């Protein structure tokens, strides 16, 4: 298999370069070093560069759904809790009960069944048509706060800023916590802030393949237990409060609820299953933790990116404003504004902050086309490479929402754009994510005009050279570089009146 050697301290940008080059040369799969720790711990990622091959692998077999990388994070967090005996429920905590993030594998049918059950419950809640108005209400309740913060932070359109930190992230976190725990977050601003700090740190440490973490994860548990906690990564201690917060929310929910009661929360169906003996307590804690880890900064960065894409493309912005204005900004569902959906999907393509699939760990020996993979090999899909490939998207450097509209002007998906990926580990939150981005954007475009600022220049040449300067070339270990980060994120948000 072709091998790609990136420069030292490479990051998402360099991994994307390897995808683009290999796709251009019609290489369906290539290997890339993700970790080389003193030559002792070496991990290669095998990037799948072809959407059709990805569909074959992820839709037609069960051997690519291990979560070895994430399991290690839960191991360290749980063992830290157990060893320090300080935080609540330390006696029972279990790293094996990772809920919906459990491995899907034939060698563990019982665990696989529990993992699938958790996912089924999550999907039932998040994809339930009858609950959609509840989520839309929760999203719309955030709008006045978002407008206020946009005006404050942007000094009424005079100062460029990144709308993620104080606008889209608090809104997305508030919606997510409301949905997960069925609580009203409107008076809990400082708590939301705390949960944001926890979730960002947790996601950063969960998705990063760093040598320190992997060394601890790969040695046997008994050996790990001989290593004093002061030599463990600091976050193992710092994130105990995150788990405690989730346990407290579950306990608070359960005080006023019993099996059979209606509750539009994620806890109720999970807790019902636990009481029937279908899953364990820590499966619930870890499923909710996974939701909070994955469900806020993804939608928040996607919304902020969409604003940035509109700032970079004034004619598209004007057209979107006019389309929505003509319907008095009334769009209750996706079908009420096809052009907005097309703008959002083009923005997912042009600014794919979630730039790759998860790392999928092979659970039993398997063959993909001419290549043999062994248990514990890492696979991932070259999402961003495909997004920026002429083969799959003609004129890939141009922002053209029309590519997601059919002849009648109706929104149509393109099977080569998989922002939520596919298969048994695909994003369970995609309906909620689209609802959030849709309703946030509908309201923001009504209130603000987005512009690139001379004080925070962004290349709008839409050329190959310009593309390279659009992205941060920072290393994976740099803060927030689990995303493919733009080099410049700040834009002007100018109130329309
Ligand atoms: C625009 C926003 C979002 C994007 C682009 C996105 C994208 C993704 C992608 C690409 C994956 C990896 C799928 C795979 O490799 O198979 C994923 C996984 C996941 N997402 Fe999302 N996501 C978004 C929002 C959300 C939301 C709102 C939630 C929860 C409410 C969520 C929860 C999750 C979880 C729990 C996983 C892990 C699933 C597993 O490993 O079994 N995501 N997401």
TrEMBL record:
Keywords: Heme, Iron, Metal-binding. One of its GO terms (molecular function) is oxidoreductase activity, acting on paired donors, with incorporation or reduction of molecular oxygen. This is Cytochrome P450. It holds the Pfam family p450. The lineage of its organism: Eukaryota, Metazoa, Chordata, Tunicata, Appendicularia. Heme binds at residue 427. Belongs to the cytochrome P450 family. It comes from the Eukaryota. Its cofactor is heme. It comes from Oikopleura dioica. InterPro entries: Cyt_P450, Cyt_P450_E_grp-I, Cyt_P450_sf, Cytochrome_P450_fam2.
